[in-house]
TrEMBL record:
Pfam families: DUF3243. It comes from the Bacteria. InterPro entries: DUF3243 (IPR021637), Uncharacterised_YmfJ (IPR024702), YmfJ/YflH_sf (IPR038292). This is DUF3243 domain-containing protein.
Amino acid sequence: MSVLENFQEWKNFLSSRVNQAQNMGMDQQTISNLAYELGDYLAKGVDPKNEQERLLKDLWDVADEQEQKTIAGLMVKLVSDGNR
């Protein structure tokens, strides 16, 4: 099963990648920029597998670039250790 099929698994996967990036010394801005690039890739090329992903894609599609960066930053914040 893909991590994209279950939203909790996706959050766990993203959390693990965020922690890995932090342990490598990446700052929050760099991590948020990478999250934006990943979000853009997913929105353009991957069909949502559940209701939560559909909502995120719909929000992404109506957002301008700055709003998309905010969504990406919020996803990073959502899965950061202090917020789970």
